[in-house]
Every structure is written in C-alpha cells, then in structure tokens.
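Hello Y.,

Per our agreement to keep a running log of every chain we model this quarter, I'm adding this entry. I've kept the format consistent with earlier entries: sequence first, then predicted structure.
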Amino acid sequence: MTAAAPVPAPASVLGLAAPVLPVAVLDDASDAVPLARALVAGGLPAIEVTLRTDAALDAIRAVAAEVPEAVVGAGTVLSPVLADAAARAGARFLVSPGWTDPLLAALRETGLPFLPGVSTVSEVMALLERGVSEMKFFPAQAAGGAPYLRSLASPLPGARFCPTGGIAPETAPAYLALPNVTCVGGSWMLPPAALAHRDWPRVTELARRAAELGRAAPAA
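Predicted structure for the entry above:
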C-alpha cells in the first residue's frame, strides 16, 4: 500500500500549550461555557467534549461561540454521522476511541485535525500506512500503560500518542516523559462533585495543577 500524505492531529496542529487534554462528559449544556472558562483560566485551553450525552453537541456549540480562547473538540466520535455533526457544531478537532476505514475517511472529509484511537501495534502500523502519525492510545492504563508505549518508541518512531483512559495525576508524568507521547487525556480535573456543585474555582485549581505536570515529568 502506498502511504498517504501525513494527516495532522490536534496535538501538533492546535499547538497545545499544555500537556493535558481535559475530557469532559456534560449532561447539561449550560455548564459548558463556565467549565471551559474555568479550564482556560487554569491553563488548559484545549477541551474534548465527549459525544456520550444528548447535551454534547449543544455544549460544543456554546463553547465555540462564547469562549474564543478555548479550543473545543469532540470525543467519542464513533461514526461518519457524528463526525459531520461535531464539525457542524463548531468542533475544532475530533477524537475517536478506535477507527475503521469508513470512519477515517469521514474524519478526513471534515477537514479538521483528528486523533483516531489505537491499542495494538497492528493498529498503529495500519494508521501509519494510511498517513496518520498521531493517535489516541486507548484505554491507556488497561492496554499496557506507559511501559507499553515505551516499547513502541523504537520500532515505530513515526508514531505519536495522546494516551487516555484511567490516567491520574500520579501516572501522567510517566507518560509525559516518553519521547512518543505529546500529551495525555484525562478527566481527573473534572471531579463529579465539582461539576455537580458547579465549583468552577475548584476546576480551575485542578486544571492549574494538571498544566504543571509536564514540567514535573521524570526523565525517560
């Protein structure tokens, strides 16, 4: 198979200024704007809103319209229909937990940067053959964690990852120290209690701590 031209992904095209990509699940779209502002204030401007709830697309629309300093994207993009809907809602990047050729084609068709999900060497190799070099590694902790990604750095030097799934402040630095990890995704800065009580100062403080994790990462 002839390799296609490399396709940009959020971590490079969006120039993430922070090592952590917050992953938000919102049941109420009215929470989206204050949540985005709280994350931006803490130093995490890129935000992934997962398409797991009925409120997700409205949440993306609200952030795109009212928080220009945020870079809002859509996560859990499982089908071409969702890819198109997210793009129309104003998402600036797309993330999927896995990929198929039809989904990959739809992601490309939107013209947006995207991160397709992988958890095996074969999936990584297949994406590299298709011109995609930046990927989501999911579910990160369950699929082998930082040691697994470390083992891929040498045989697959062209691949770059944003691991997501089960990552916590205690484990994030080990990922961020790896040469093939650009950022990590997580939701620990969005604890359910803080969201339920709309405790946005708490979210800002946790985001600030998350934004500092890259500087605290140990040497690989």
